[in-house]
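Supplementary Text 2. Reproducibility record for the structural model of the 242-residue chain.

All settings were left at their defaults, and a single model was retained for analysis rather than an ensemble. We include the record here because the model underlies the residue-level annotations in Supplementary Table 4.
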Amino acid sequence: MDEKTVSAAIAHRRSVRVYDPEQSIATEVVKNCIKQARLAPTSSNLQLWEFYHITSEAQKKAVAAACFNQPAAKTALQMVIPVVRRDLWPQRVAANIEFIKKGFEKNKVVDPKTQERALNYYQKIIPSLYKGGNPLRGFFAKMAMGWRGLRKTTYREVSASDLRVVGHKSTALAAQNFMISMAAHGYDTCPMEGFDSKQLKQILNLPAAAEISMVISCGIRKAEGVYGERFRIPFEEVYFER
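Retained model, structure tokens:
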């Protein structure tokens, strides 16, 4: 099957609620689409995400049950679950620092000041920000940034809830990459938010700090799997040029 163009893939993508059990999708293709998901933009390049690829019948049934056995889950041929892992920020910071240092070696950058400027963001700024993941510390950081903002342009999204939003935004961008990549192969998906998060975390054996962004069912659509024509608010109501 020829891959679709980006525009064709976007047009093809619909939230499919019923999949054809007579069809099949290639696990390796789905896995490669997850690799495409990893190329999505992510805040500070921290990549605070994981992707759980559900292929076994036992796991599919368990996940479907946690999704209230809604048709999109119950008829899925495979599932992909993007998970937000803000708790992994120290490891991701370390990985970025290592990558930058290797770049210094590769490009023979020896000037200490140049190295310091390049590393400062990950060694000082990001740790200071992500320690705000502690609710109390984040509360005081929010107040401090609000006070600072009275005098100058200020970054204000520093509370624990702000960082949670950042993590979910980045993971959702990756999920969209995945779904468009799937559509390019003629595969269908449905992002689901209706699930018991506690049950699902137990099924996946996730730590308490992990958060499930969504559950994406995968397969080949049946005609009745698309619930009606696509509806969007008129472009003129949502587009504003300034």
